[in-house]
Amino acid sequence: MNEEEKIVKKEISENEAEGQKRQKMDPKTKRNTIIIGIIGGLILVGTIATALIGHFANQMRHTANTTPILNWNQQKPGTYDENRVFLTNKDVFSIIKNDDTYAVNGVNLTEDAIYLVMPASFQEEGGPIHSFNVVPDGSKNIITSLANHLKGVYFPTLYSSLGSYSFSDMPSLEEVAFGSGDGTQKLGEGVLSDNPSLKKVTFSKNLLSIGKEAFKNDLGLNEISLLDTKLNILGEGAFRNCVSLSKVHLPSTINRLPADLFNGCSLLANVYYHSTMAAFQNLPKEESWNANSAISSIICTDGTISL
């Protein structure tokens, strides 16, 4: 018998011996051995499954669609889709000239346009580049089609004037941001009124005046901060019926509190006035400036005034 045959014969003999040993096991030992084998198998399966789940979870994390956060001050004008991907600026803006002033007097949207970045300048064919910063006062929304879809409007540069109701009555609008520059800004009557989903407004540092009922019936608006503005004039009923409004910061530059300023603001308990108690007490106020609101305290830089 050669050496290879001896090794094979030895392995067979050992396997037979092992089988006989298992046959001779008492039932209890045999059962325990089987249980241990099963547990070991389950542990092995669990280990493999955990590794596979971890692998695919990592794959999903790397491939999942995410909505990018964009700096609108650096985005080109035009329309953007739900994922903030640029769509077009062709035939979006209607522009008029009045003497030497250029203005946007119309916006045309497509159905997939969800965000809008307003232009800072335009160039006539073969001509010079013109800058403009005015939305004319037309007492109506300048968005001529599909305004109901729009969620955000952004002004990368300063617009010195926004006409009455120019961005009003848009049920899906959630955010508006105004840019800054040289000069001042005036927001017209009802300019952003009746936008029930509006939650966030970033004001221009150049803001000088807010028109009558500018934010009336903006039911989702919960905070207003006017601290970093030049605000001087607040129009009557500017925040009328902003029922979710719970925090307001007013700058020391305002010249008066007009009638019905916070009428219907049922959650607004405190107003933050960024000057002294004496300055607030001397500030001209219409008797109904806080009518039908929950305002009970004016928090000033040197103390609190209870109403």
Q: Would you write up a description of this structure?
A:
This protein is α/β, with parallel strands linked by helices. The chain has a domain at 3-63. It is 21% helix and 24% strand. It contains 3 helices and 21 strands. It has helices at residues 3-24, 27-63, 277-282, and strands spanning 78-80, 86-88, 93-98, 101-108, 115-117, 121-123, 129-131, 134-135, 143-145, 152-155, 161-162, 175-178, 185-187, 200-202, 207-210, 223-225, 233-234, 247-250, 270-273, 297-300, 303-306. Strands 2-1-5-10-12-14 form a 6-stranded mixed sheet, with no helix packed on it. A 5-stranded parallel sheet has the order 8-11-13-15-17, with no helix packed on it. A 5-stranded mixed sheet has the order 16-18-19-20-21, with no helix packed on it. A hairpin with a 5-residue loop joins strand 6 (121-123) and strand 7 (129-131). The longest helix has 37 residues, at 27-63. The chain is flat and about 65 Å long.
List keywords for this structure.
307 residues, six-stranded mixed sheet, five-stranded parallel sheet, 3 helices
Task: Provide a quick synopsis of the model.
The protein has a domain at 3-63. It has helices at 3-24, 27-63, 277-282, and strands spanning 78-80, 86-88, 93-98, 101-108, 115-117, 121-123, 129-131, 134-135, 143-145, 152-155, 161-162, 175-178, 185-187, 200-202, 207-210, 223-225, 233-234, 247-250, 270-273, 297-300, 303-306. It contains three helices and 21 strands.
